[in-house]
Amino acid sequence: MDQYNFVVCGNENVGKTTLINRMTTGCFTNNYSENNIIPLNTNKGVINMNFADRHNNVDGVIIMFSCTDISSYNSVSRWFEMYSKLTNNIVLCGNKCDVTERVVLPQNIIRHLQFDIKYFDISAKSCYNLERPFLTLLKGLLGDDTVLIDI
Q: What residues does 50 pair with on adjacent strands?
């Protein structure tokens, strides 16, 4: 079973812990857990994605912002600058895209174009689009566009 190291970064309260908990337990909770390994069943076998705040050896990065907090979106450049030195396997995610209080509107999200990375609207609460950033990171890491996640 292959294991790779990943980082989820972003400002406080954007949903990083909730995303990891949702993927590891299937539950919507913001309680911090020490178990941050997500075993993904793929058509290439089981791949463990080990998520932490920091890794010396980073295989991929999810930069998150909250669609309800413009300052978290404005910090994306800082997070990209920090982690792009370690890997080019990076995706950008706007969490809480399903709330009515959305202030970061889709037409204003352009940072991913500046950095030439993929962007995904996601919701850790409703599970909207959650598999897409993980699948994109795996495809980039393995260099294989035929990878599929069995969810």
A: 5, 37
Q: The pTM is what? A: 0.90
Contact 130, 142 (CB under 8 A): no
How many Cβ atoms sit within 10 Å of the Cβ of residue 74? 13
Q: Which residues, in sequence order, are CB contacts of 108 under 8 Å at separation 6+?
A: none
- Is the domain 2-140 a CATH 3.40.50.720 member? no
Domain boundaries of the chain, sorted by first residue: 2-140
Task: Name residue, tokens 């050896």.
Answer: 57
Report the C-alpha gap between 147 and 136 in whole angstroms.
9
Measured CA to CA, the distance from residue 33 to residue 56 in angstroms comes to: 20
Average pLDDT, the chain: 88
Q: Tens of pLDDT along 65-107? A: 999 999 999 999 999 999 999 999 999 999 999 999 999 988 9
CB 43 within 8 A of CB 135: no
